Each structure stands twice: as C-alpha cells, then as structure tokens.
Amino acid sequence: MKRILVSQPRPSTDKSPYFDLERKYGVEVVFRPFIKVEGLTAKEFRQQRLQIPDYTAMIFTARTAVDHFFRLCRETRYTVPDTQKYFCVSEAIAHYLQKYIIYRKRKIFYAESGKLDDLVPLIQKHNKETYMMAVSDVHNDQPNALDEHGIQYVKAVMYRTVSNDFGPDEKLDYDMLCFFSPAGVKALQTNFPNFEQGDIAIAAMGHTTIEAVNEAGLRLDATITPETPSMASAIEAYLKKTGVEPVDND
User: What pTM was estimated for this model as a whole?
Assistant: First the structure.
C-alpha cells in the first residue's frame, strides 16, 4: 500500500489525521476531489416556480447552501430583509452566516446536536413563518424529521453536484480510493468507464455511498465503524489488517 486517493479537497491545516497516516505508515495520501459544486443560474432557479421573497425563514443543512442562497439573492437583485430568520442544523453553519449578515440571536437558530431532528422544536415555536430549505440537486428525497413532524416547508434546489473531470493523461494509479458520496462513485464510472478494481481497495462512508459502491459492482474494503468513526481511522484499521507496518521515523 503506497498511494491512497482521498476524493476530497486537501485539508487547510497540517494537523489533519491523513498527514499523520503519511508519517506513521510511509504512504502517500493524494487529495483529488471527484466532484464539484456548481450553482444554479437565476434562470434555472426560477424554473422551479419559487420566489425567495415569499419565504420568511430559511433552513440550512450545509454551508454550501448558505453560499448559494445569498448568491442567488444577489443575482436576482433581492435584498434580504433584516427580519429574515435562519434555522441551521448546526452551530458551525449558524456562525458561518456572519459571512453575509450581522449575527443576531433573535433571528438565527441552530440545533445543539447538529441533527435536523433537534431543529424541529425551534421551528415549531415559530409556526407563523414560511420555510424554505436550500438543497442540492442530489438531496435525499426520503422523509426527514421535518416531514415526520408535519412541518410545512419547500425544498429549493440552489446548487448541483457534478463530476470533476480527469484530464486525458491523468491516471488512476492508486492502491486505495476513498469515497464520501454517491456522486463520487458516479464520477469514477464517468471518468473511467472501463475501471476494473482488481487489487485496488475501496473505502466509503455513509449508507448511500456504500450502496452506490455495491450497485457499481465494486468491492467495499473499508468503512467507518463505532471503533473507527472517521475515514482516517478506517484507513488505518485497513492498513493494520493488511499487514502494513508503521515506519521508523527516528
């Protein structure tokens, strides 16, 4: 095991556990996103027959959704009123709003747990609001906590996930591929239609991502577990399982 491809952007800090793996096991971790996000144009958004001014509260489950909401507001020349309320699935997303607005607790709410379920009581307390949730084109259409509690809201697709194409001379010469979304698996098939797994290990996290690996006829070699709750720890467990020994860095 020499080269591991992590299909995400390179971490912004040197303290990433992926770099610890490189030092500890002498492997090379390459960061190469298989997918990228593109915003819908204002024209494409209007085709959904939704008007942002009709909704007094936004529900955000990702910082990407925040970015594209305010981008679309700017492109449609809509000035978001100070009365607009924001309901975020996590504190991190709530604080991210400071990039666009002045943070005021009376109009920004978030779930302490980071789960949509725990956002429900906050939304129920503000039942006079009209709610819009900003989502990607590949969002999960399965009923969620909002649906189960009868929350009235609309999903507005504001951005899409597309394949981040490989160059004509770019090779897939890795010993392990790590996936974090079904779109990443689809991008592999798009860019390398004749891909044969062979001895290449595949790691994936998330139920839908694992399903995509199975549906593609690929072999899943590593995933997160209660004992290995992150992708980095799952990779390390696989390295140990396959007999890769730590290197002597002294």
Answer: 0.71
